[in-house]
Design brief:
It holds the Pfam family LUD_dom. InterPro entries: FTHF_cligase-like_sf (IPR024185), LUD_dom (IPR003741), NagB/RpiA_transferase-like (IPR037171). There is one protein chain. This protein is α/β, with parallel strands linked by helices. The protein contains six helices and twelve strands. Helix 3 (64-74) packs across helix 4 (88-95). It starts with a helix and ends in a 5-residue tail after the last strand.
């Protein structure tokens, strides 16, 4: 752009702004995008999770442990990481069929497991993202990155409409992991490769509650 053209553009901007009232940023209304009804939020979350090539199921609370076992059975899992803080009934049901690894397994031990089962602190409907803060029932970050399969339980009440709504529920001092679908990347020919930076398979179960 020449100096003359730039001067013309700036002059027109100054002319358009002349007489305009400067509004403080904190006075701008920001409630124009109200959240969707709860049922729509859950439906949207499931749709967006599926868009990422993850498996997502809405299940009743009394069928949750059976759904977890079925998800693990579907990938032929044998050794499964179950972080501290998961409901005891999950341990009881899964322990009858799978070899459970609790506590805080190191990376070498994680290399020898087939899957991990966790809860999540927040789900984000608009992006289909799952957020872990690695509190009870979620394990440390390596436990959800090394195993090839991640089965994650996201209660309906934990699903937020969008990213700002989700951030209001999170503690910024916690270590946060955002997961959008199975781990995937593309090679130089743009062929999709899954399981490079984390689990190849993500199976999300959405019950009304996980108690």
């Amino acid at each position: 752009m020449s100096d003359a053209a730039r001067a013309t553009v700036l002059a027109r901007v100054r002319s358009a702004l002349s007489g305009a009232t400067r509004t403080p940023l904190d006075s701008v209304p920001r409630d124009y995008a109200t959240e969707r009804p709860a049922a729509d939020v859950v439906d949207l979350f499931c749709d967006r999770v599926a868009d990422y090539r993850a498996t997502v199921e809405r299940v009743p609370s009394d069928g949750l442990t059976g759904a977890i076992a079925a998800a693990l059975r579907g990938v032929s899992a044998r050794r499964v990481v179950v972080p501290d803080g998961l409901p005891q009934v999950w341990w009881d049901v899964l322990g009858a069929e799978f070899e459970l690894v609790g506590g805080d397994p190191d990376v070498a031990e994680l290399d020898r497991v087939d899957a991990v089962v966790t809860t999540a602190v927040v789900g984000i409907a608009s992006t289909g993202t799952i957020v872990l803060d690695h509190g009870p029932g979620q394990g440390r970050r390596a436990a959800t990155l090394v195993p090839d399969v991640h089965v994650c339980v996201v209660e309906e009440a934990r699903i937020a409409d969008d990213v700002p709504a989700a951030l209001r529920r999170l503690d910024p001092t916690r270590p946060l992991t955002f997961i959008s679908g199975p781990s995937a990347t593309s090679d130089i020919e743009l062929d999709r490769v899954e399981g490079v930076h984390g689990p190849r398979t993500l199976h999300v179960l959405v019950p009304p509650n996980a108690g």
